[in-house]
């Protein structure tokens, strides 16, 4: 922060920036309650609805490091302003969309607008506050992001029930334009870098190919099958583009992916921990969503209650952790957060269909507290390792890790959950009906019925069951219970592996007591 800018004005500037962050996160959270209505409105199959999320995440993840670098070169306030205008326009376009293709295009542009905003806000946090004050600022940023996610689902559901799904996009666009006013009036421009290199268009295209392949692979594999040439073509494109991007970034003066920043252990290690933790948290949320909604007596409202406590716990812990991280070693808070997540995962492994809702809420609270504790500490570690002249590029890379975590976690957890559910359900049905000698088609029909609320069993199969003294409803209930228990357990073991890896990495974090070298605060490399 410039010596002429006192603490009060720094917080005023930061508050203006936080509003833009809140709107973008809340708008992203609107998608969960809006997605079923959008799917019905445009008449698309449910398995293609994932494209609504993928295209937004694709644009946000790919363009975050690009826009961060452009902010370094041309001014961060300028890029944030353009991003807010683009975001508002795309929200209005989504509300007005005449068809699904147009709506998907608007969603992609929304991600592009958010990619202009978030890296710039991260960079301003490092610019406005000195190292010994930055933790609190990052804690409030984490609070703002968590509050946006928590309020978006609740507010979006209320708006959609009363005003229809387009209302969430009209309101988001209007709020973004309102938030642009304090940004223009209060936020000072950070002088761009004196030496501006050419934009790395080749690197941008290669990065786009890599992220597109990574995020879309689960969807295409589900639609076309694992053995499909299309699925394998996507894999080959993604791997080839990654190899070319790595080679290209090594020999390009101003690459879109700055390998110099990634090579810093003090940046790469906390970023990797944060990425794993985001995969972990997303896996918790999406697996519980399907588990709670499909277990006997489960409802969507119960899942909403669980997420309220999960995000609410993060709202409590993130500003507290932000205050603490200015007084204690950030690595200590990271290790504590990983240990809490590990303990929560062990409890998660004991959840089954008979577990009372309050116990699930306790687990959610532990997870939320750990995520809120980890976020400001990790952000301070990662951004503290980035040179001031490259803060936009570094914050863009960090934002990319963050934005990759959520879609990766949802894809992985749902893939494990879905495959485990199908296998365990089928096995339970086969075990109960072994004496009947049912053919494959009948077994498949029973498995489909077990996974649906309608429980529609073909008449001839139901008659065969009755002949052997079996109730179709009892068979399906038992199979559904066995499938859900196995599915959640397998997701839990996957999450356990992720959090153990994150804990190992956290133990390798270097101590970060800042050292003053030539008048600049610099975190030690490590």
Explained architecture:
This protein has helices at 7-29, 31-42, 50-74, 76-96, 100-128, 131-163, 166-186, 201-224, 229-251, 259-262, 265-294, 300-324, 330-348, 357-384, 391-432, 440-450, 459-467, 472-507; strands at 515-517, 520-522. It has a two-stranded antiparallel sheet. Strand 1 (515-517) and strand 2 form a beta hairpin. It is 79% helix and 1% strand. The protein contains 18 helices and two strands. The protein is globular and about 80 Å long. The chain has four domains: 1-199, Growth Hormone, Chain: A, CATH 1.20.1250.20; 201-251; 259-413 and 491-526, MFS general substrate transporter like domains (Growth Hormone, Chain: A), CATH 1.20.1250.20; 422-484, no CATH class. The protein has 526 residues and is mainly α. Residues 1-5 and 514-526 have low confidence and may be disordered.
């Amino acid at each position: 922060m410039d010596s002429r800018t006192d603490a009060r004005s720094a917080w005023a500037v930061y508050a203006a920036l936080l509003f833009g962050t809140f709107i973008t996160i809340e708008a992203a959270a609107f998608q969960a309650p809006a997605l079923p209505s959008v799917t019905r409105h445009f008449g698309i199959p449910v398995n293609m609805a994932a494209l609504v999320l993928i295209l937004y995440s694709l644009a946000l993840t790919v363009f975050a490091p690009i826009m961060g670098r452009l902010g370094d070169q041309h001014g961060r306030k300028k890029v944030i302003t353009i991003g807010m205008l683009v975001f508002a326009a795309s929200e209005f376009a989504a509300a007005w969309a005449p068809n699904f293709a147009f709506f998907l295009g608007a969603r992609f542009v929304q991600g592009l607008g958010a990619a202009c905003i978030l890296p710039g806000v991260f960079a301003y946090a490092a610019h406005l506050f000195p190292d010994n004050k930055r933790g609190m600022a990052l804690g409030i940023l984490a609070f703002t992001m968590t509050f946006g996610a928590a309020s978006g689902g609740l507010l979006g559901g209320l708006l959609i029930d009363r005003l229809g799904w387009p209302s969430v996009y009209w309101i988001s666009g209007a709020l973004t334009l309102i938030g642009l006013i304090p940004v223009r009036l209060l936020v000072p421009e950070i002088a761009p870098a004196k030496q501006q290199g050419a934009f790395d268009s080749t690197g941008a295209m290669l990065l786009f190919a890599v992220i597109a392949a990574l995020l879309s692979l689960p969807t295409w594999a589900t639609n076309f099958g694992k053995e499909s040439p299309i699925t394998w073509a996507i894999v080959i494109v993604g791997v080839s583009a990654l190899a070319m991007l790595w080679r290209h970034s090594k020999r390009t003066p101003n690459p879109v992916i700055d390998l110099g920043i990634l090579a810093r252990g003090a940046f790469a290690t906390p970023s990797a921990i944060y990425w794993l933790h985001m995969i972990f948290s997303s896996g918790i949320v999406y697996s519980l969503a399907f588990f709670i909604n499909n277990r006997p007596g489960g409802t969507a409202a119960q899942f909403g209650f669980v997420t309220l406590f999960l995000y609410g716990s993060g709202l409590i812990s993130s500003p507290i952790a932000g205050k603490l991280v200015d007084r204690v070693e950030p690595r200590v808070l990271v290790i504590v957060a990983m240990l809490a997540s590990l303990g929560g995962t062990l409890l998660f492994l004991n959840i089954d269909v008979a577990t009372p809702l309050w116990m699930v809420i306790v687990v959610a609270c532990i997870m939320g507290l750990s995520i809120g504790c980890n976020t400001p500490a990790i952000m301070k570690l990662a951004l503290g390792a980035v040179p001031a002249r490259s803060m936009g590029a570094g914050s863009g890379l960090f934002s990319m890790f963050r934005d990759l975590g959520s879609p990766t976690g949802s894809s992985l957890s749902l893939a494990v959950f879905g495959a485990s559910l199908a296998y365990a359900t089928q096995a339970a049905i086969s075990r109960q009906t072994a004496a009947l000698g049912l053919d494959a088609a009948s077994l498949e029909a029973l498995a489909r019925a077990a996974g649906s609320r309608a429980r529609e069993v073909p008449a001839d199969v139901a008659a065969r069951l009755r002949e052997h003294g079996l109730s179709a409803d009892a068979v399906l209930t038992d199979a559904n219970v066995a499938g859900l228990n196995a599915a959640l357990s397998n997701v839990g073991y996957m999450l356990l592996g992720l959090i153990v890896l994150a804990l190992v990495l956290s133990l390798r974090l270097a101590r970060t007591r800042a050292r003053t070298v030539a008048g600049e605060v610099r975190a030690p490399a490590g």
